[in-house]
Design brief:
- It is found in: Cell membrane.
- The chain is an all-alpha fold.
- The chain is 76% helix and 3% strand.
Length: 286
């Protein structure tokens, strides 16, 4: 009986561990190995520890890297600005209809990711339902357009990844004990002070989770840039896709993929260190 209890935790984690090993760790090792190889699709690739794949990839596509991280940062900030008020209202003002409001908020995301992005193209086109009437009535100049701009890409990214920010923030806000807010009021704290000293610190773990869940996929996305951005607003995901499937340059594509993952991890760790949950836990301990 004691033996079963000892192995029970390992048995519970075994499926998840196998999944991560097969579909994450093993492909990651293969990607790193491939990034150091040389060759071509006809003669084959062989391991030569060609580290120049990293420097050459970064030198050739440094601007695209910077643009991807910038678009990812803008979209993440926009998601946060839109998500926090919505999640706050549902958590504290939603009443018994919280689930219904959440369902309505998430309802568009039951549609395919690609279809949602293409629908944005129809909305933002020059003669679409938004810009067309504004241009016809002279409110916007005839030369004004949104498609094929960075604004269109960031807008599409913000729209498509909004649930990744809303849900963690809502869960963090929902778990806050209302009696803490009432206690702040009893101690003559204004609503702004109660929010700044009680609600916001306690919701930071949700914000952190939302930033991590949003920033990483947004920066690596390639569908929105392909559909909404045009050739001058490509992101590093488009470059990696092109190197893999069009140029068959697997080593450089693997090197770019690894560099992207490294940059994202550095950004997430820096954010967690600067605005992470350490202060929150410290505040609770006091």
């Amino acid at each position: 009986m004691a033996g079963r209890r000892r192995i029970a935790p390992y048995l519970m984690i075994l499926p998840g561990g196998l999944w991560l090993t097969v579909f994450f760790a093993a492909p990651l090792v293969l990607m790193v190995s491939l990034s150091l190889q040389t060759g071509n699709l006809v003669d084959g690739f062989r391991q030569t520890f060609h580290w120049q794949n990293y420097t050459e990839g970064l030198g050739a596509y440094g601007d695209t890297f910077a643009r991807s991280l910038w678009y990812g940062l803008l979209a993440t900030v926009a998601c946060m600005a839109l998500s926090y008020p919505a999640a706050y209202w549902i958590a504290f003002r939603g009443g018994h209809r919280k689930s219904a409001y959440l369902f309505l908020l998430l309802l568009p995301y039951f549609v395919s990711f690609v279809l949602r992005t293409v629908s944005w193209k129809l909305v933002l086109t020059d003669n679409g339902p938004v810009l067309g009437p504004l241009r016809d009535h002279g409110i916007l100049p005839q030369g004004f357009h949104v498609l094929d701009t960075g604004f269109a890409v960031v807008s599409g990214l913000t729209y498509n990844y909004l649930p990744f920010m809303v849900l963690p923030i809502y869960v963090a806000l929902e778990r806050i004990d209302p009696r803490l807010v009432e206690a702040a009021g009893d101690l003559y704290a204004s609503r702004a002070q109660a929010f700044g000293r009680v609600i916001l610190p306690l919701s930071l773990p949700g914000v952190l989770a939302g930033v991590v869940m949003t920033f990483a996929p947004v920066s690596a996305d390639y569908v929105n840039a392909e559909v909404l951005g045009g050739p001058r607003n490509t992101m590093i995901g488009n470059v990696i896709q092109s190197e893999y499937f069009d140029n068959s340059d697997y080593p450089v594509a693997s090197a770019l993929s690894f560099l992207l993952m490294a940059f994202l991890l550095l950004g997430v760790f820096a954010y967690a260190r600067a605005l992470g949950t350490r202060g929150v836990l410290g505040a609770e301990g006091r």
